[in-house]
Structures are given as C-alpha cells and as structure tokens.
Amino acid sequence: MTHGVAEIARCLTEGGVVLLPTDTVLGLAVSPARSDAVDRLYALKMRPRDKNLPVMVADAGQIAALGAEIPPAADALLASRFVPGALTLVFGLDQTRAPGWLAGRAEIAVRIPDDARLLAVLRETGPLLVTSANRSGAETPATTVEAAAQLAGAPDMTVPGSGSAAAPSTIVNCRLSPVKIERHGAIPAAEIAALTGAVQ
Q1: What is the pLDDT of residue 143?
Q2: Where are the domains of the chain?
Q3: For the chain: N or C, fewer Cβ within 10 A?
C-alpha cells in the first residue's frame, strides 16, 4: 500500500506514530504538539525519557521559528551541499522564541532530510520529532518489517521501505567554538572542518 503525503501528515497531526523510511536510516515520527504520541514513541523504543528526541524540519525558516540560536559556523553548514541531507546540527535555544513543547530545553538537534516525500510531509505538519526506528540501544533494522518486529508495540502507520544510507547522520554541536562532532556518520569530519574552519 502506498501512503501519500496527506495521509501521513493527517496521521501525525491526529497524534499517530509513523514508521517510515528517511534519507538515512528508518525513522519513527510524531508531532511534538501531541504529548500522547511522544509518550508512545518513547514506549515503542523503550527509550529513557531523559534522552531528548531530534527534530526534523522542512527548511531553515522552520529552524529559526523554533528559537534556535544559529552562529556563523552553523550558517555555513546550513548553506552547504550537505543540507538537505545527513547532517544534524545542535543549536542553543532562546526560550523567549521557542514553542511550548521545547520548554526547559537548553538545546535542540535539528536536521533537514533529503527526501522529497518527507520534506512534503514536514511542510504540511511543521517540525516533527523523528528518531531511528529501533529499540533503544539496538542497531536500526534495514526494513520497516524488521523494525516493526523489534519495537515494543505497533506504530499507527507503517510506510513500507528501507533507509537510504548505511550510516546515520553526522551530528555537529554548533553551540561550541570550534564546532564539535558529537557522532560520526555519513558526512566525514574533514568536510565539516572545511566548511567551519576547525572541528573538535
């Protein structure tokens, strides 16, 4: 069964948990405005609640609307050929501009995916919490069928497919100067250093 953008977006805005392919590994997505969906996502992954969930957005405008503090090094990364793509950026938060669901958070990890369907969904829904579709601490399965079997329960919608990359996104902490690579992934450290001048 093929799931269209409108169907996926409706499931998310109504509080559903969606298992879907991304441009890196398989993901579980929920609307951050639906605390019930967020609770279910944590339960499905058996993920500790003190581990915050990363955010996917459609464009840099949505990042700014989250209250992210974007330093010059991050601007260079956002303008690079790796965005959209497998690059997750960690920003500090200005709580005076942040939405309510980010209350109490000092930072946020954000990515713009290089996937046409997912970008279309994000334009419909606004920012989504999207995390790898595996039980916490386990490797992310290759297909949605394998992922569903690993989770502690069933998502509300499964979009069939597989992740498009063997490696997860590279995570770069832009709160530090020079920036620091928090997780080595699809984009090599040398490429990050070439854009920002230096990395930790």
Answers
A1: 87
A2: 5-196
A3: N
Has residue 198 got a pLDDT over 90?
Answer: no
The CA distance from 153 to 148, in Å, is: 8
3-state secondary structure the chain: CCCCHHHHHHHHHCCCCEEECCCCCCEEEECCCCHHHHHHHHHHHCCCCCCCCCEECCCHHHHHHCCEECCHHHHHHHCCCCCCCCEEEEEEECCCCCCHHHCCCCEEEEECCCCHHHHHHHHHHCCEEEEECCCCCCCCCCEHHHHHHHCCCCCCEECCCECCCCCCCEEEECCCCCEEEEECCCCCHHHHHHHHCCEC
pLDDT in the model for residue 167: 80
Give the pLDDT score at 2.
63
Give first-to-last CA distance, the chain, whole Å. Answer: 45
Residue range 5-196, CATH number: 3.90.870.10
